Amino acid sequence: MLGVSRHVVSGLIAAGFVMPSRGPRNEYRFAFQDVVLLRTALQLRDARIPPRKIIMALARLRDALPDELPLTGIRVSALGSDVAVRTGPSQWDAVTGQLLLDFEVAEIKGNVVFLDTQPVQKNLAGQAQEWYALGEQLRTSDASGAEQAYRKAIALSPQPFYAAYVDLGALLCEMQPRCEDALQVFDEALSHFPEDAVLHFNRAIAYEDLGRLEDAERSYQRCLELDPSYADAHHNLAMLLERRGDPQGLVRHLNAYRRLTT
């Protein structure tokens, strides 16, 4: 199978890493994630890592990871005679259990039977929270990874995940020029939380960054209808109305901002 020895495949199956079904001729039929993991084992074998060490390293990795994160979501490579987890310039010895997660999965090519599988439904709310926490950790160092983590949290959460929507939208607005994507996130969030002032405020900022000033003004106004004490909305709307040539609106909202902040 992909050049991986029978001993390694049998060890991975025995350890529960891969769970192939059987075909009509009693052959193994592997799902996509199984194939990715087997390909990783092949790469380690080609680097002359002993089969026992491959299985031991993968076992340590599996035990160290949160339940919801598949082992195939990690980029594993050989470093000399050791098995390492790699992300960017950093490498971590798999045997120590010190991991830095990477979301890239290499493309698989070849004559392989791919089967659809359903992930184990295990405490989806907890899984969503862990993905959200990962997004928070990655936010300042890996914006792309943080985006993926927030989206995974939203997808897994049994209930609309308010904080993940807010933080994902804000992150996308910071990743110029992703404000259009941020608007989609805020619109989806508002379908679940239509009376939330923060979401209307954030959507107004995205509109303003895109130069859609009329839409921005409406969103600021809606924010203030829901929360008249939202000082930052008064301030931003005052500055926007000045740009739009409305001095009376500027004075009104600037005075409101000053009353709320002094």
Account of the protein in words:
This protein is mainly alpha-helical and 262 residues long. The chain has 2 domains: 6-96, Orthogonal Bundle (Multidrug-efflux Transporter Regulator, Chain: A, Domain 2), CATH 1.10.1660; 124-261, Tetratricopeptide repeat domain (Serine Threonine Protein Phosphatase 5, Tetratricopeptide repeat), CATH 1.25.40.10. Helix content is 57%, strand content 7%. It contains 11 helices and 5 strands; from the N terminus they run αββααβββαααααααα. It has helices at 6-14, 32-46, 51-64, 124-138, 143-156, 162-174, 179-192, 197-209, 213-226, 231-243, 247-261; strands at residues 21-22, 28-29, 76-79, 82-87, 90-93. The chain has a 3-stranded antiparallel beta sheet with strand order 3-4-5. A two-stranded antiparallel sheet has the order 1-2. A hairpin with a 5-residue loop joins β1 (21-22) and β2 (28-29). α7 (179-192) packs antiparallel against α8 (197-209). The longest helix is centred in the N-terminal third of the chain and has 15 residues, at 32-46. The protein is elongated and about 80 Å long. Residues 66-72, 87-91 and 97-122 have low confidence and may be disordered. It comes from Paraburkholderia tagetis. InterPro entries: CellSynth/LPSAsmb/PSIAsmb (IPR051012), TPR-like_helical_dom_sf (IPR011990), TPR_rpt (IPR019734). Keywords: Repeat, TPR repeat.
